[in-house]
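To close the section, here is one more complete example, presented without commentary so you can practise reading it yourself. The ligand is 2-(butylsulfanyl)adenosine.
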Amino acid sequence: MPSDTELRLTELRDALHRANHRYYVLDDPEISDAEYDSLMRELVALETAHPEYITIDSPTQRVGAPLDEAFAAVTHRQRMFSLDNVESIEELEAWQARLERTLGRDPNGYVCEQKIDGLAVSITYSEGRLVQAATRGDGSVGEDITANVRTIDAVPLRLMGDPPQLMEVRGEIYMPVSAFETLNARQAELGEKPYVNPRNTAAGSVRQKDPAKTAERALSIWLYQVGHVVGGPELSTQWDSLQWLADMGLRVNPASRRVDDVAAIEDYVATTEKGRHANDYEIDGVVVKLDELREQDEVGYTAKSPRWAVAFKLPPEEKTTTLEEIRINVGRTGAVTPYAVLDPVFVGGVTITNATLHNEGEIHRKDVREGDTVVVRRAGDVIPEVVGPVLSKRATGSKIWRMPAECPFCSNAIVQPEGEAKARCTGGFSCPSRLREYLYHFASRGAMDIEGLGYKTVDLLLNEGLIRDPADIFRLEAARLLEFEGWGETSVDNLLAAIDAARDRPLARVLTALGIDHVGGTVARSLAIRFGSLTALMEASEDDITEIEGIGPEIARSVVAWADDPDNRDLVDRLASAGVRLADPEPAEPVAGSLPLAGLSFVVTGTLGGFSRNEAKALIEERGGKVTGSVSGKTAALIAGASPGSKLAKAETLGVRVLDEDAFVALLEDGLGNESVD
Ligand code: IVH
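Output:
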């Protein structure tokens, strides 16, 4: 016989599960926030008094303890496929015609769904309890993100109705646009860098080691696919599957429709495109699936994707606005980046006020000028971009933009180094813009990781004249900091403790913090393992460095050039005398797993907008790939920018895959084979 306490616990949990479902899944709350809070308080109090009755699916148990290990690997019971894309009605019709040929008849209806721009997740429920959540990974093996997914309120910890013995369900985790905007408003207040887009932010959020951090992020989910099921009902259509998921309390997108033919699919695509920014989430297309599961089985899969479904990609939305001014930024390495100041325009679901123009060459190639009416766009996963000018609206007397000869921040010369796309400010750390960006990077996570030293504090320290180069961070004194408005003992102590802790970071972190061109976390680790100390690295030759697996000549050149620069030598001396440890007491652990492009060779040709040829090479090398000068049968892919010339023809003849700049960026982010989808 359950005791009164147990009965009350069950009542409270049921009421809270129901309230959650109404609020987060159906968006139709049934009880007030105050009632919810009072139920939750009572539950917490009862569970605190009777911890022996806490259950894993209790609404109080969403946020668990931080992980200290890496995310464990999870082998998917059924492979998580990606989708082939179609980009036009003709391609859609061709898909339908292929299906009709295979089936020997016109398919018996389709389900149209919005293609959510988030990250795919597989969630397993056992006896109706959430037991596991995993990322897609390479489709066969993903990562265990259970602890983080449990924090998402729209994901039930317990299913309703009559759940099967075991069920794997697939869906997309996303960050609502409104939550993304709130998050960025907060970043701006803190003087921190804004997040780039909701998708990357959602992906970063589910990969936090501490579920409490994920819980802060207001993520949500749509479920759209039934995976492996044991003991469930006989389902015969995708449409019924969606209904079944919804009946169990899972969040299923109400915008999905069952349609009969291609004409109706076209209507759905048109309506979706028109309303794409009316939703509080980003979509990058429409997914069309054969409705009948029997027909799905009949047409089957290719190696990579189902034949029974396609993604109709929506083109990024474009708008026109005025390019008011071209300004420049000096980044942490001294690289000068021009950017467009735009008359604010709402495009792709957000208001854009400026957009990078990469470098002077790119500005001339696009032929954009101050005062021009320009076309701008923002694809779901791409930062705002100026596509080009509307020449018919160009004012007479407009002038071609030239890189200023002097840095507007420090008045030192701006120079254009041979063979590089970007110009450089020669002011070193005397340039306030460079110093600011450098300090921010130096203190950031993955580098020296000094908590509390974001843009806001960096700006304050710079304005007060307390810091002239990064080594000054380690010479800050409590007495001066206490003079700042709003700074008490606690904040000063915390900052100084965080700085002190940073004196003993592993060498790999120090190398990352130093901001050597092309030396990110992975390369820094390889260098730390091989050399063990900064002194040893600074004496190394290019040959010594290229001996390390995964490090090519471009990176080696950049490291040696950095070590030869007297300013950098001076900085290293000053860091050493400020008590920063520049050597590992014990050898660093080798990097787990191999680099994403290891063993692959690439050719780069034509003009890329965002990278010089050398930068592109270095980025490939950093990931373990090789860059060669000519296309052969062994070339994994040709990266082709504008005006690619004969190498493109050769690649096409040899059947070597060709990646444009967007696909190249995706390659760098996700590795080969993942760059054309998602
Ligand atoms: S179905 C085998 N439905 O798109 C079926 N996927 O390129 C594969 N996606 O990895 C998935 N919305 O991350 C499906 N309504 C939807 C989707 C959707 C977004 C994503 C998913 C998948 C990728 C495929």
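Once you have examined the tokens, check your reading against these statements. Residues 81-83, 113, 115-116, 120, 136, 172, 224-225, 287, 306, 309, 311, 677-678 surround 2-(butylsulfanyl)adenosine (CB under 6 Å). The two ends are 52 Å apart (CA to CA).
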